[in-house]
Amino acid sequence: MGILEETDRSGDARPLPLAGLRVCDFTWIVAGPQATRILADLGADVVKVENESYIDSMRLGLQRPDEPMSLNGSGFHSNFNRNKRGITANLHHPSGREVVERLVTQSDVVIENFSAGAFERMGFGWERLQELNPQAIYVSLSGFGQVGRDRLNITWGPTAAAVSGATQMSGLPDEDPAGWGYSYLDHTAGYYGAVAVLMALLHRRRTGEAQHIDIAQIETGMVLTAVPVLDYQVNGRKYQRIGNRSEYPSIAPHNTYRCAGDDFEDDRWIAIVVETEEQWGALCDVLGSPDMASDKRFNSNDARKRNEDELDTAITVLTRSQSARDLMHALQARRVPAGLCQRTDDKMEIDEQLSARGFYPSAPHDELGEHRYEGYPVQFSDARWRMVRGAPLLGGDTVEVLTELLGYSEEEVSQMMAELAI
Amino acid sequence: MASQLNTESVGPIEGLRVIEVGDLAEVAGKLLADAGADVIRVEPRQGARSRHIGPYVNDRPDTNHSLRFASANTSKRSVTLDFEREESVSIWSALVARTEVVLDGTGSSTLDDAGIGADHFRTLQPGLIWCSITPFGLNGPWQDWASSDLVQLALGGPMMSTGYDDHSLPPIRSDGEHSIAMSNEYALTALLAALWLRDDNYDDGDHPIGQLIDVSIHEAVSATTEGSFPNWEFLGQRVIRQTGRHAAAERNSPWQYKCTDGDYILLMGGGIPRDAKIFEGLLRWMDEYDLAGDLHDPKYLEVLYTDPNRDVEIRNHVADTIGSFVQSLTAEEVYRRGQALHLPWGIVRRPEQNLDDPHWEDRDFFWRGELPGHEESVRYPGAPYRFSNSPVRMRRRPPLLGEHNHEVYIDELGMAIADLRQYSETEVI
């Protein structure tokens, strides 16, 4: 029994769906770790490989300012690498390479998100992986993919969002693109990475055949742009930003409205969507404005759409002094789709739904201590996911993995440590 | 070299039998269908919601010509069934009886309330995997709340990280039904994991392990906000949104600039190169235009490549100088030459501009296929992954409404032709 099983205090006897599967994990930053985080949450034994010259740089991200810099001091890193085991292996040392090779022979999946071709230059291309373990599924996740003329281009999440079209598809029509305020496509590429691994495992179970999967992060954004791509081809229309309004379907009101601020900032907003006349009546009611309900400019969806600027101004006049959260509850009580633009503190400290469903379970980390983590957004009837432990310390599970899984003796491990092979 | 694609063989989940119902599971259904699953979409007689949402071919509304529907329904088959009608129960039961997976995108407990949902069929069919995607999950105080994509991106947090430096402008919802994408991608991970578990394991009664999978869109969106979560949980900091770059606890320099051709360029992290060698290459490029300003001063090298948290003002000055430089060029030049210097800079494209980029042609990313209502074939954005031995591809064009009623109900379920005609006339099918 490994450290994660020992640490598991859920007392839940339902199975982890991916228990028994092993992943040799060479991912770093966000996109790759997001993929293996899902596999680890679902019970796979994800063994993350690092070494002194190749450390996941996110280990240094968002450090606590009042404490000395630590390779194990990042909550950002811990959230994306929880439930994994961590070892170090020095690929420049023959014994370190052998550790990785033994791990590959014991793995169902090998996954990395280096720049295209880099893993092959490190000596672990598809052919070599096949020699080591013909059953191993290999996933490469990069910005532009492993083939194509621009495969060597360098990307981070925001670069990929820009090229894919996702950045342009976000923002007000008369302003610059707003883009995404975080690396959305790192999440997305990670989600598709996990989907691809699982599809390939099912294929292997049926056919006995492993395969190489090439994921281009930009393509994982492009698949989300199909409507404008088709619209351009058949109607000749170039994409134009729409802010928070809705053209397809053409409905109004459909926007965010400013409410009273709170003690952090005068920056509280509520999203309101009206799809039916009944909802429109309810909105006017809740906002206490019979005038608006009877206003000819607003008495049908077509009229509201024609006068949308005036409509949005009129609604803002009524919401500006109100509590966005109270207004949300009042509107939801009348079945009007409405939601506060929540910050993370709202989600974690107040949101009744996330709280009731236990979305932020708590778990230990050997240096950061006990903290809450984002959950896996699914509940199973006859299985479970786990939140057992934060990210591994750098090399924190090397001894356990090498002695219990890879067949090294404790003496051999000590020797390799002395030689800086691991 | 990357392995060659084998286009002869079957998809990774070829033959998996899936029934999709409701409007919240379209993307998951498409991803399964493109990967080889036999996905039958069960639609009401008036058609799925997305058939009634534009844009349409030639901007003429038609149930079969919605681009929104086309974008999320390739490779599926379509049958119609009116759940309001009592006669639908036996037909629905026959459909479920032949399936391994039900993708329930009705967004509510409607089917269970009518006695024809997960509870009912899971006792009849051990091993059945029923994946329910709902706005807030199948339990909890907000379970019955009204929802929409805008409301989900507000409640889940993406919007408060996305927008402009100027906070008199609202938080922004990115266009493209992303709450559906996020939840459907997570749903697939759960569903495929449940299939993996089912195939190797048996319950106490020696039956394969079936599953009710309860996916909450609110949770899927809430798990898709990257840095704002650790900022709050580990550092007690809230992030503030900024124009075209990451939300952060403290404001920083711009990352996005408008170039001379009117297009925008994204300079990751504000454009400061990650090492001194790349910085020198950038300076030589800036010198060609005499726009390096005072950046040749050796103090900059020292500040930039020692401690990233030191001298924020000096770093901002460097970033601003690089920003002024790129604004004097075209976005295409900044993108191509920046990338040649290994700078992670990206041109901010409109989605349709990718149709002209030969890199995607090299990868066969776009799928050419038929689009109902349009004479010429079109190019659809393809798959988010390339499998070397089990290609994911468009199996068939998006289905017309009820296009497969005959094929499914008569050929596969064994319904009599006269019965189908009767059901059709009485508006059950």
General description of the model:
The complex is a heterodimer of chains A (422) and B (429). By secondary structure, chain A is α/β, with parallel strands linked by helices. Chain A is built from 19 helices and twelve strands. Chain A folds into two domains: 3-224 and 355-418, Crotonobetainyl-coa:carnitine coa-transferase, domain 1 (Rossmann fold); 265-342, 2-Layer Sandwich (formyl-coa transferase, domain 3). Chain A has a six-stranded parallel β-sheet with strand order 3-2-1-4-5-6, with helices on both faces. Chain A has a three-stranded antiparallel β-sheet with strand order 7-8-9. A two-stranded antiparallel sheet of chain A has the order 10-11. In chain A, 58% of the residues are buried. By secondary structure, chain B is an alpha/beta fold. Helix content of chain B is 34%, strand content 16%. Chain B has helices at residues 26-34, 67-71, 88-97, 110-113, 118-124, 149-155, 178-200, 217-222, 228-235, 276-288, 298-304, 312-326, 331-340, 358-362, 405-412, 417-425; strands at residues 17-22, 38-43, 77-80, 101-105, 129-134, 162-163, 211-216, 240-243, 245-248, 256-258, 264-267, 345-348, 367-371, 374-380, 386-387. The longest helix of chain B is centred in the middle third of the chain and has 23 residues, at 178-200. Chain B is elongated, with a radius of gyration of 26 Å. Chains A and B meet through helix 3, helix 7, helix 8, strand 6 and helix 9 of A and helix 2, helix 6, strand 6, helix 7 and strand 7 of B.
What's the arrangement of secondary structure elements?
The complex is a heterodimer of chains A (422) and B (429).
Chain A: H1 3-7, E1 22-26, H2 31-41, E2 45-50, H3 75-81, E3 85-88, H4 94-105, E4 109-112, H5 118-121, H6 126-132, E5 137-142, H7 157-164, H8 184-207, E6 212-216, H9 217-222, H10 226-235, E7 254-259, E8 268-273, H11 277-286, H12 290-294, H13 301-306, H14 308-319, H15 324-333, E9 338-340, H16 344-349, H17 352-356, E10 362-363, E11 371-372, E12 378-380, H18 398-405, H19 410-418
Parallel strand pairs in A: 1-2, 1-4, 2-3, 4-5, 5-6
Antiparallel strand pairs in A: 7-8, 8-9, 10-11
Helix pairs in contact in A: 2-8
Chain B: E1 17-22, H1 26-34, E2 38-43, H2 67-71, E3 77-80, H3 88-97, E4 101-105, H4 110-113, H5 118-124, E5 129-134, H6 149-155, E6 162-163, H7 178-200, E7 211-216, H8 217-222, H9 228-235, E8 240-243, E9 245-248, E10 256-258, E11 264-267, H10 276-288, H11 298-304, H12 312-326, H13 331-340, E12 345-348, H14 358-362, E13 367-371, E14 374-380, E15 386-387, H15 405-412, H16 417-425
Parallel strand pairs in B: 1-2, 1-4, 2-3, 4-5, 5-7, 6-8
Antiparallel strand pairs in B: 8-9, 10-11, 11-12, 13-14
Helix pairs in contact in B: 1-7
